[in-house]
Write a structure and sequence with these properties.
Blueprint lengths: L14 H24 L6 H8 L3 H7 L3 H27 L4 H33 L2 H21 L9 H21 L10 H13 L3
């Protein structure tokens, strides 16, 4: 069995090259999201190049195949999401515990709804691309960020090991929000969704 390369062929160092790669990835994201909405799977490197306004040859200078391109797009999306989550964690830290968790729940739901369709599409492609190291690395970074937050707000919570707490909290949130996104976000749009997620988080962290 031949393993399909999943890494970019060339690292874009010059500004013009970075702009080309940005245009290619933006076009790929738009087409993948469009196909998800239409419940089709017609994305090809030719379509992506046309949408990006570059030649297919230029696309292949940076990505050896469609799978490598989608892997790069998924990597960029995951990094962007992590930056957004880190910003939310910093935002809620000064608040009292229940208010902080309510704000966290609300902001995470907003982010999930904003990106639900593209994330759903990318995860379908992820099954084909199989870049499990990328997902594992992103998970560890998010777990560590939550562990840092728990260590800083320890006086507000029950006695919980930050590393264990970060692990369980992250996966409880990710799996809950992720499954809701795969159902087109209907559950997350329910008026009580934020309150229910807050109860889940507060029930785990509230002082004994």
């Amino acid at each position: 069995m031949t393993i399909t390369p999943q890494k970019p062929r060339k690292d874009p160092r010059q500004e013009r090259s970075r702009s080309t790669v940005d245009a290619i990835l933006e076009a790929a994201g738009q087409l993948i999201e469009r196909d998800e909405e239409a419940k089709q799977s017609r994305v090809s490197t030719t379509h992506i190049a046309e949408r990006a306004g570059v030649s297919v040859g230029s696309l292949y200078q940076y990505f050896p195949n469609r799978e490598a391109l989608v892997a790069a797009l998924l990597r960029r999306f995951v990094q962007k999401r992590f930056t957004e989550i880190r910003r939310v964690l910093d935002e809620v830290e000064p608040l009292p515990l229940e208010a902080a968790l309510d704000r966290l729940a609300g902001r995470l739901i907003e982010l999930e709804l904003a990106h639900a369709r593209v994330m759903k599409a990318l995860m379908r492609w992820f099954v084909r691309v199989g870049d499990f190291d990328l997902i594992a690395e992103a998970d560890r970074e998010a777990e560590a960020a939550l562990a840092e937050l728990l260590a800083r707000i320890r006086p507000k919570t029950r006695a919980v090991d930050p590393q264990l707490g970060g692990f369980f909290l992250f996966h409880a949130m990710r799996n809950t929000l992720g499954m809701a996104a795969f159902r087109e976000g209907d559950m997350l749009r329910a008026p009580a969704a934020q309150a229910e997620l807050t109860r889940l988080l507060y029930g785990y962290l509230r002082p004994d």
